[in-house]
Design goal:
Blueprint: H1 3-18, H2 20-37, H3 40-51, H4 57-73, H5 78-86, H6 90-103, H7 107-116, H8 120-129, H9 137-150, H10 156-161, H11 169-181, H12 186-196, H13 226-259
Length: 260
């Protein structure tokens, strides 16, 4: 990434920040077209790096949500998703860590990134932290959307991994964690029905009594410091909590002035 490319990405994000309507109506289209014309990995890497230093936390959260939706749903990002899915190479692991640090601006998107990269234990650890966060209507809406995404074709491999109960306990725990966060809505019913399809592990034994093959072993994940990532997540979320309280305090003061 040369300096001109990086400056362009900085200016693009500044434009999105100052013109939120542009981000809502054309932002996804602009980013998808850039991914077609330029290197998608460089675009996501540079945007994540810039958002890591973004002072407007609300914009950072919105932008991360937009980027995550593009990453998970756009056909233009198919190769990048495959690169992230297994984290086989140092480059893919570096990209994951870079995205993760910025994705921490939005708790639910952070979990979806862990699902995409098959980091199920870390996803479970994150969901355990959700009990300490301020649960808002917007937060629950995003959990609802994540449940809908889990039912989409992009997460077919994740649903198939539910067949291998013994080797994917944290995936099942993470999904049950999402279920416990949700009120009893249509998303709750959808995820509940999916988890009811998880087979009894005793029924999944092969004829000779051995466990079924689990395929690729994720030995590469040991190169990532997940404890440090979890601490970064908590630090970023504490900043968001302080910012929300400051906004609420300013709004309360304004209401008092209006009354007076």
């Amino acid at each position: 990434m040369n300096s001109y490319f990086y400056k362009f990405m900085i200016n693009l994000l500044k434009r999105f920040s100052s013109e939120r309507k542009l981000l809502e109506t054309r932002g996804a289209f602009i980013i998808r077209q850039l991914c077609l014309l330029l290197n998608a990995e460089n675009i996501f890497h540079s945007m994540a790096d810039i958002l890591l230093r973004e002072e407007d936390l609300k914009f950072a959260s919105t932008m991360v949500h937009t980027l995550n939706t593009i990453l998970l749903t756009s056909s233009e990002l198919f190769q990048l998703r495959n690169q992230l899915k297994d984290l086989r190479t140092p480059e893919s692991r570096n990209l994951f860590c870079c995205l993760y640090r910025s994705w921490c601006h939005n708790p639910v998107t952070t979990v979806s990134l862990c699902f995409l990269t098959q980091n199920y234990k870390h996803a479970y650890d994150l969901i355990q932290k959700f009990g300490d966060l301020e649960v808002t209507v917007d937060f629950l809406t995003e959990v609802d959307k994540l449940v809908q995404l889990i039912e989409c074709p992009i997460f077919t491999y994740l649903r198939l991994q539910l067949l291998d109960v013994k080797n994917n306990p944290y995936l099942i725990k993470a999904l049950y964690g999402l279920l416990m966060l949700l009120p009893q809505s249509s998303a709750f019913q959808l995820l509940s029905h999916r988890l009811q399809c998880v087979p009894n592990p005793e029924l999944m034994q092969t004829a000779d009594g051995t466990k079924p093959s689990t395929g690729f072993k994720r030995a590469t994940s040991s190169n990532i410091d997940y404890t440090e990532l979890l601490q970064h997540f908590e630090k970023v979320q504490n900043k968001h909590l302080e910012a929300r309280h400051q906004r609420a305090g300013r709004a309360e003061q304004l209401d008092r002035r209006v009354v007076l």
